[in-house]
Specification:
Layout: E1 3-6, E2 9-11, E3 17-23, E4 31-38, E5 45-50, E6 56-58, E7 66-71, E8 76-81, E9 90-99, E10 102-107, E11 111-115
Parallel strand pairs: 2-11
Antiparallel strand pairs: 1-3, 3-8, 4-5, 4-9, 5-6, 7-8, 9-10, 9-11
Length: 117
């Protein structure tokens, strides 16, 4: 599985941005997908996840602001970021931890989201 993240850029506080993660392969619909982020000098943290069945989970600090969704027809997972805060500045990565009942650990390259002055 190859993952391609995109959509990063500059965001003003209070603004919105949508990240996309496109996955290769015909079994995308069976995959759980996560979005992680890593800010400068900090550890990577799990921001949001979505299961193959559509169940979602979020980091407490982004609940109510970020929304993860998936379009299986396009092999794509999205992270809609609203009410953006400067502390959301980070490199964002998509990750596949599981396909069906089997564990994996696929990562895409990161996409940088940073505050616009």
């Amino acid at each position: 599985v190859q993952l391609q993240a995109s959509g990063g850029g500059l965001v003003q506080p209070g603004g919105s941005l949508r990240l996309s993660c496109v996955a290769s392969g015909s079994i995308f619909s069976l995959a759980a997908i996560n979005w992680y982020r890593q800010a400068p000098g900090k550890q990577r943290e799990l921001v949001a996840g979505i299961t193959s069945g559509g169940s979602t989970n979020y980091l407490d600090s982004v609940k109510g602001r970020f929304t993860i969704s998936r379009d299986n027809a396009k092999n794509t997972v999205y992270l809609q970021m609203n009410s953006w805060k400067p502390e959301d500045t980070a490199v964002y990565y998509c990750n596949v931890p599981r396909i069906g009942f089997r564990s994996y650990d696929y990562w895409g390259q990161g996409t940088l989201v940073t505050v616009s002055s």
